[in-house]
């Protein structure tokens, strides 16, 4: 039975579409856009204070995200039943915290002000951290079990945001709020069902895995860019508090999904190229276009295209990081959400306080900052090692050939079983020896090897060995 499952899994196409995961991601992306990412002039006014509503939400998001990161990184994972009860309880409490202030307002119309509005923003921020962690953990587990499913799920999830956001734009505020809360409450059940259905297991170890700092720096830069985008285009794009869901802005999501889908359909892709030579430069071009006096809405759509194309690549990269070090799945996405929320809060607060009204100057500054960041961060000759994609905890002890096989497997989206077979093939082992080593039938190994060759672009074992040795020489030359 195990061998049969292995052969079926190896035969999956490069685009292994999981419709339910696509739907969950689309609701998460839509939640984040509606709740915390779109431009809005809404403020919390309390006595003499006048604070941007999103600033409160983003700070709450960041604090909750870092708290979840610390808890999940340094504490062992509880038993599945306990985790499920905790997750459901947290979702219910957060849902109540969002709805109760609006219900007590006696109108339940999605419109609040003063202290109740501030309280609701805090609960929404914590809910955003919770959703990012729970859905991100599921996404990372899928990346470990079914690597080929994460790219189409991300791209299709982004595409599905377009009709979702248009639909939510035309419903009353109370229905919109109710729909988002319904998603919040349903997430622990949906994710639990996915985990049970696919027999996914979250590691209960507290292995000390180094944090990929370059990855985190990129997330912070992206957060700052989004926060600046919100501040700059709040006045020029948002005519009132509800234009944050202007259906025309979904054009940016559509273009981002197309750009990400086209660039990630190949069996091999270079994260450096996708992030620093495609996504972030497009985002910078949007700001520069605005600075040159171009149409502000067009500039806004270009920025959205660049931001979300990069965002999808970063999510896929996160899944591959967890595939290489499974213990990271517990905390990586919590940290991702916290860092991006922190950067977003910094960018938004800077524009709303120190650089208010300086649209052209702000656009020039952030556009230049993004391009300089690309020049600095893209300079590594080995894009995979620097991300931490090759066993962040153990890369120093791996020999060159083993490390090269890990890089090649990550580049070509190999399954877990193919990753086991690849180094044996690279060492010159034949099919019979591999079958005995891994306790598989020779037919199953033959199927895995056939798929492995197709992904690596090799036709014979010698070609594969030459390719692995070439990767090993490149890796040793970079050190």
Question: Could you give a short description of this structure?
Answer:
The chain has helices spanning 2-10, 19-37, 53-74, 80-104, 114-145, 150-169, 173-197, 213-236, 250-263, 271-291, 296-324, 332-353, 359-377, 383-387, 400-411, 416-426, 431-438, 442-456, 461-478; strands at residues 43-46, 49-52. The protein is mostly helical.
> Ranges with pLDDT <50 over ≥5 residues?
1-14, 381-385, 388-398
Strand % is under 5%
Sheet/helix structural class: mainly alpha
Give Rg in angstroms: 23 Å
Instruction: Tell me the overall shape.
Output: globular
Spell the H/E element sequence. HHEEHHHHHHHHHHHHHHHHH
- Fraction of residues in H or I helices: over 70%
How are the strands ordered across the major sheet?
Answer: 1-2
Alpha-carbon distance between the two ends: 43 Å
Oligomer category: single chain
Give the rounded overall mean pLDDT: 80
Number of helices: 19
Q: How many strands appear in the DSSP assignment?
A: 2
How is the main sheet built?
2 strands, antiparallel
